[in-house]
Fold this protein.
Amino acid sequence: MKTQVQTTSKKPEGTAICLVSGGMDSCVCAAIAVSRHRETAFLHVNYGQRTERTELEAFQRIAAHYGITKQLTADISYLAEIGGSALTDRRIEVPTTNMENNVIPATYVPFRNTHLIAIAVSWAEVIGAGYIYIGATEVDNSGYPDCRAAYFKAFNRLIQAGTRPETRIEIITPLLHMTKREVVLTGIQLQAPLHLTWSCYKNEKLACGRCDSCRLRLKGFEEAGVKDPIPYE
């Protein structure tokens, strides 16, 4: 397995903030952040998504697992009012067919990551965090434009331009160049609580196994030779 994950017994000073949606990728990202930093704060954002309640519960379980005391849950449900995504507008069906190459899927929430990271940057300035971890992947993903390396590179420049002169905050994307197989294996290596996560775009009790997120997750576990621990229909 080739990954860019590096951990160290000598953890750097300062706080890292990790965006934790409750999904598999964010859980593995959280495991990496916790292994690297002396103090890690968890940020969760509700944005009016279909599985908001289940994702929040997953976040709370993951935070409890790691004993995270510094937590923030933010609400930006105005994204549901804006709509334009199958995740926030129930009039738009969540697709269960294979995504076409180079086509942005209906599950893309317009510019969502910008809203999420902006909250993290504001919080980081207040608590003195120098790093913001996000579990975005560019290899096995749904083709979202705000999950690309160029996007995060540009956002790091924006942070430098839009914060206090003495502020030093960097977005860290440890999963960006991993396949889903590598994400699963990294999670197992770090003993991340993958059984506590939730990835399904449609359901809140039994994962559908058919939406893009479920298919990518199942693909990762299958290629890793490991059984997915969450329940499916």
